[in-house]
From TrEMBL:
Coiled-coil intervals: none
Gene3D superfamilies: NAD(P)-binding Rossmann-like Domain
Protein's UniProt name: Dehydrogenase/reductase SDR family member 12 isoform X1
Any single Pfam family the record assigns to this protein: adh_short
InterPro entries found in the cross-reference section: NAD(P)-bd_dom_sf, SDR_fam, SDR_member_12
Encoding gene (name): DHRS12
Length: 317
């Protein structure tokens, strides 16, 4: 079944996830959707110093938004902040250094953040694909700690902050790779099977889709969405998937093309006309399962994921 899923997904990707797929889809975009200005609105973008995150931050900054960059590496983040200010002409760009694989650090960050700042839009962009099983200081598998638990803790902690504001939104940058994975709550730490960073990443991205659907039901005052940016030429792809990057070459999307739907979900009034909790690709909601792929999960399995994450979140609070 995994072979079928992977083959069907790759064929779909060649049609839709490439630069030509974006160019085809963009013919249906409404040109005025992103002709907006957002002074007075506050955005928090994780991993905003490079790739899709950086492209997202620049466009928000150009439109007058206040942007909080949450990054891990101080030197690289400070350099990116300076470049973003120069390119956008917007000095309301704030930097926060947080390791998103460390739930204790995330709780501490939010506790301080909410004392000083408001927040209208959270963009969960940061992620990692570690190709060898690696544990954090807390004994958590690194991909799961960053991509799933970190997103859960950050979003959960910021929901009360978001709920105070007008038109609050949460966008999570997932991946079409999640289409090859069925939710598996029995091995969240990747202890029981041969380790594949690519498959663990895809499983984490499936978990993000389940979380988005859960949050949308639990918090109707906030518009939640997740999305696939397509196959984009970013530092993360070059580092984590060098073979794929080399084979795809100039068929990959630019970082700006990958960021387009993130921006649309974060900025466009049209985005919140769509129901909360959906998965988007090129400004349109798309199915979260491939035909005949048997990747659907039961409500009990999804609730188990939430229970495990909540227990871990509270343990490290």
């Amino acid at each position: 079944m995994l072979l079928y899923r992977s083959a069907a997904w790759f064929a779909k990707g060649l049609r839709e996830y490439t630069k030509s797929g974006y160019e085809s889809a963009s013919k249906d975009f409404v040109p005025g959707d992103l002709e907006v200005q957002v002074p007075g609105r506050s955005f928090l973008v994780t991993g905003g110093n490079s790739g899709i995150g950086r492209a997202t931050v620049i466009e928000i900054a150009k439109r007058g938004g206040t942007v909080h960059l949450v990054c891990r590496d101080q030197n690289r983040a400070e350099g990116a902040r300076g470049e973003i200010i120069r390119e956008s002409g917007n000095r309301n760009i704030f930097l926060h250094i947080v390791d998103l694989s460390d739930p204790k650090a995330i709780w501490k960050f939010v506790e301080n953040f909410k004392q000083e700042h408001t927040l209208h839009v959270l963009i969960n962009n940061a992620g990692c694909m570690v190709n060898k099983r690696e544990l954090t200081e807390d004994g958590l598998e690194k991909n799961f700690a960053t991509n799933t638990l970190g997103v859960y803790v950050l979003t959960t902690a910021l929901i009360p902050v978001l709920e105070k504001e007008h038109d609050p939104r949460v966008i999570t940058v997932s991946s079409g790779g999640m289409l090859v994975q069925k939710l598996n709550t029995n091995d969240l730490q990747s202890e029981r099977t041969a380790f594949s960073g690519t498959m663990v990443y895809a499983q984490n991205k499936r978990q993000q889709v389940v979380l988005t659907e859960h949050w949308a039901r639990a918090h109707p005052a906030i518009h939640f969405s997740c999305m696939h940016p397509g196959w984009a030429d970013t530092p993360g792809v070059r580092l984590s998937m060098p073979g794929f990057h080399a084979s795809m070459g100039d068929r990959l999307r630019s970082a700006a093309q990958g960021a387009d739907t993130v921006l649309w979900l974060a900025l466009a009034p049209a985005a919140t006309a769509q129901p909360s909790g959906l998965f988007f690709q090129d400004r349109k909601p798309v199915p979260t399962h491939l035909p005949l792929a048997r990747t659907s999960s039961s409500p009990a399995e999804e609730e188990k994921l939430i229970e495990i994450l909540e227990e871990l979140a509270q343990r490290f609070k």
